[in-house]
Amino acid sequence: MSSPARTAPNRPLFGLCLLALLWSILVLQAGGFTTSIHAGMAFLDWPLSNGSVNPPGWLTEIDKFAEHSHRLAATGLGLLAIAIALAHAVLEPRRLVRRAAYALVALVVLQGVLGGLRVLLDKLNIGGDGNFKAAAFAVGHAVNAQLTIALLAFIALTHSQAWQQSAKSAPNDVRRGGIAAILLVFTVILAGAIMRQGHFTAWVSGPQEGLFIPSIGTGIVWWINFLHRSGAVLAGFAVLGFAVQLARQRFPLLRWASLVALVTFQVFLGVLSIQLPHNPHVRTVHLVVGAALFSTLCAAVALAFRREGQFADA
User: Where does residue 31 rank: exposed (0-12), middle (13-18), buried (19+ CB within 10 A)?
Assistant: First the structure.
């Protein structure tokens, strides 16, 4: 009898996961735009907005629209995550994939809690001069969003034809290259989250501003910006190196070429963000493409491990 891992892909589950992935882009875009225009405290309460699901002014005032639309979209993603978990409990025979679906719900719930704490513990609510607690939860909220989307991408991947197809094993150096790329990209994501949520961004202040070595800022501000920018260069080379390894192993063109395209576009957006510091749309797209890159990279590494049988479905 064939193992569950080799059964035909479940199209309804695959479609549901793709729908959730597309919706998560909307959630991330709304959240990124909210942060970019500093509208995270447009409402001082949570989970309602000024005590309502339809607060006055949210369709006419940009800061209220950004924050409330993010909350509404996040609620929709939560409902989709619950639907995915229930559907997998009924239809999915593979234990690993079912557990991943349950973990998705846990991450989405955690994401909501982190977002709520970011609001409720802001200095506008608790007083004081510093805002460390709110910023810390905001960073956690930003990073957990990336992990949530990556897990969702993995679940969708397990229902794809690529996951079902058997092929030769990926060598150890390919898998190590993929893991190194994931760690480097995640470090850049973390530094970027600290920059955005802690308002540590040191963008253009004059003609001498450097692209990868900030010419403004001091102390922790300078170091976080330097880590994000220089780390992005290292992570970019790591991703490109992993893509080359995949190409040499004759992985399908789309699988490694997508990594090359995404990392190239992401570096371009990063440079554009430095040159257009007052454009929130560029920084928001930079965030969304970063999530797409991280998720695609995680999926590619999962496939490399899959080829070695590391994701056996007991």
Answer: buried
